[in-house]
Amino acid sequence: MDAISNFAYSINSELLTKVSLLLDNHIVFVLVIMALVLIKESRNAKRLKIFAALLLAFFFATCIKILTGVERPCASLDIPNCPSSSSFPSLHATLAFVVMISFLNKRSYWMFVLFALFVSLTRLVLAMHSFRDIAAALPIALITYNIVDVLWRSFTWKRLK
To answer: Residue 130 gets which letter from DSSP?
Structure first.
């Protein structure tokens, strides 16, 4: 494991571990993401755009996971209940980064930056991912949000004509 991943894994905080395990639950994580979008974005069209970007990012990151087959750090550390799925890239971080990017032009952006960084930290603390897995999530989020944004504008422009 790299130095950053090792450092995060060595953090010994019971509260951080409990919150990390809570966010590790896919249902809880999706509910948190949905709640943040629904609470902080009032425009339905933008909400739909964000959810479309989240779906596309999930699809792309899952395809990359299947193609790469990178072993999770927890597997080499013999941590119980380590998932057998690929580590690269982190789906949690990818989705958190998509939400962060979605709020780039809002005052609440920095809250989403902190949320995305916290989610990323939780993945490292549990040794589910390495720093490389987290770092790869950001360009995937940027690319997928940009694709959705371009398609969204194109579709909206054609409807307005």
So the answer is: -
In a domain, 151, yes or no: yes
Q: Is 7 inside any structural domain?
A: no
User: What is the domain count for the chain?
Assistant: 1
* Residue that has been written with the tokens 């990017």 in this structure: 101
- Residue 59, classified by CB atoms within 10 Å of its CB into exposed (0-12), middle (13-18) or buried (19+), is exposed
pTM, rounded to two decimals: 0.89
Question: pLDDT tens-digit profile of 101-158?
Answer: 999 989 999 999 999 999 999 999 998 999 999 999 999 999 999 999 998 888 776 5
- Between CA 8 and CA 16 the distance in angstroms is 11
**HEC letters along 58-123:** HHHHHHHHHHHCCCCHHHHCCCCCCCCCCCCCCHHHHHHHHHHHHCCCCCCHHHHHHHHHHHHHHH
Asked whether residue 134 is assigned to any structural domain, the reply reads yes
Q: Containing domain of residue 20, as a range?
A: 14-160
Give the other-Cβ count within 10 Å of 70's Cβ: 18
- In a domain? residue 8: no
